Amino acid sequence: MDQYAKKWIKEAGAKLRESFATELNIETKTNPNDLVTNMDKETERFFVSKIKETFPGHRIFGEEGMGHDINDLKGTVWIIDPIDGTLNFIHQQRNFAISLAIYEDGVGKVGMVYDVVHDELYHAIKGEGAYLNHYPLSPLSKVGVEEAILSINASWIVTNKRINPAILAALVNDVRGTRSYGSAALELAFVAAGRIDGYITMRLSPWDFAAGSILVEEVGGKVSDLFGENLDYIKGGSLFAAKPGFHEFVLEEYILKR
Ligand code: 2AM
Ligand code: CA
Ligand code: CA
Ligand code: CA
To answer: Consecutive 10-residue runs of the chain (258 residues): their mean pLDDT?
Structure first.
């Protein structure tokens, strides 16, 4: 299964790179900043046709329309975000990824995040380690808050309905530096690769984190919602991924501290 997934994700990535030379068709979804392109839709259709042809019994849950009636993860479910970071795809032609995960009865078995422009495939099979292309990713080591690089969107520090923004502001003040890449899948892959130490975001859908969470956990990182609870792989929600130790520390000393 993972060999097919790898082959298809590379093929889809090549099509995305080729699309830079063509004119994109851009539409809005729920609001003027929520965009979708013909390439988002074409890429999802590409995976759907390959999976249906090769694994007719498998189910598919994708951002651009597939399986939006899914309300459990029974059997084998492919969870796909054809382009994660569509705004970056449109504006920057970089900092986007294809995210593909395979879940069996709710357990994440295969996680792949493909950084298309850099030709970097982050991949993991549960229990067999995580890799960046052919290089194994090292188990994550502990880091103190004062040495940590945290990925967080600045807007969450200004207004926020889920948590007092002052808590996030204090955390942002205490860490060594912050980043914001605009692709949840890539940010999770960066946590797994040790390029950043943590990632906090307020609202994601399952296809944003289904693959990345497998990568992070495979190298010993922690993934939860913002308050330390389990992620919801059907509804989505907030997310906090980080190195071991740092995750617990931030929950105890900032997020859950009254
Ligand atoms: P997308 O590009 O596939 O839509 C941007 O900070 C990150 O959040 C991207 O991973 C983006 O995925 C995702 N995202 C953007 N809008 C979202 C929304 N309304 N709900 C959930 N995730 C969203
Ligand atoms: Ca989207
Ligand atoms: Ca996404
Ligand atoms: Ca997307």
So the answer is: 97 98 95 95 98 97 93 97 98 98 98 98 97 98 97 91 94 97 98 98 97 98 98 97 98 93
Q: What is the pLDDT of residue 231?
A: 98
Sign, Cα dihedral of 174, 176, 180, 185: negative
Whether residue 25 contacts residue 35, with contact meaning beta carbons closer than 8 Å, is answered with no
At residue 167, the 3 state secondary structure works out as helix
Question: Is 96 in the same domain as 164?
Answer: no
Tell me the C-alpha to C-alpha distance, in Å, between residue 37 and each of 91, 97, 149: 12, 14, 32
Instruction: Provide the number of structural domains found in the chain.
Output: 2
Residue nearest to atom 21 of ligand 1 (CA): 204
**How close is the Cα of 84 to the center of ligand 2, in Å?**
7
Query: In the prediction, which pLDDT does 246 show?
Result: 98
Range of the domain at 215: 145-255
- Co-location of 124 and 149 in the same domain: no
Report the CATH number at residue 237: 3.40.190.80
How does DSSP classify residue 241? Answer: E
- pLDDT at position 201 is 97
Q: Is 95 in the pocket of ligand 1 (CB under 6 A)?
A: no
Answer yes or no: is 234 a known binding residue. Answer: no
Determine if ligand 1 sits within 6 Å of the CB of residue 202. no
Q: How far, in Å, from the CA of 174 to the mean position of ligand 2?
A: 32
Show the tokens assigned to 249.
Answer: 């520390």
Ligand 1 binding pocket includes 85 (Cβ within 6 Å): yes
63 is in an annotated binding site: yes
Q: Is 84 in the pocket of ligand 1 (CB under 6 A)?
A: yes
